[in-house]
Amino acid sequence: MRDKLRTSRAGPGGKHGVSRATLLLRQRPSWQETALAAVVTGTLTSIVTTVALALLARSEGKSIFQPTNATSHWMYGDAAGSVRSADARHTLFGYCTHHVSAIFWAVPFQVWLAAGHSRAPSIVTRKPR
Asked: How many angstroms separate the CA atoms of 64 and 113, rounded?
């Protein structure tokens, strides 16, 4: 049986010489896969929340750029949130700040998942004892 698994090519890596046994024995993602998952998760989160905040700003009669501009307040002061137009100084810098922070917070979550912990919201959000 073991020889069959070793020589059998199956799964996503079959073409590239990854044996089925290797795929079956591999239990946890590598740190590179975890990092990539954090980048993907953080990027998607950044995009979705930026769009959501822009729509909320519009519904409040504000510029769609104000929430993103406000994120640059740590560099340009509280007045950054009042800037209504898109510019590199506030919008680009604010979006980059938001994007990097989303990836930063995706890292511990992806490490949690890579360790085999539950994805159930009731487990992920529970308060530690």
From this structure: 34
Where in 34-81 does DSSP place strands (E)? Answer: none
| pLDDT value of residue 19 | 64
Low-confidence residues of the chain: pLDDT under 70: 1-26
Long-range contacts of 4-10 (CB under 8 A, 24+ apart): none
pLDDT at 6: 45
Counting other chains too, the contacts that 32-37 makes at CB distance below 8 Å and 24 or more residues apart are 33/114, 34/110, 34/111, 34/114, 35/107, 35/110, 37/106, 37/110, 37/113, 37/114
SS3 at position 9? strand
Residue 15: its pLDDT value, please?
53
What is the rounded CA–CA span in Å between residue 68 and residue 96? 9
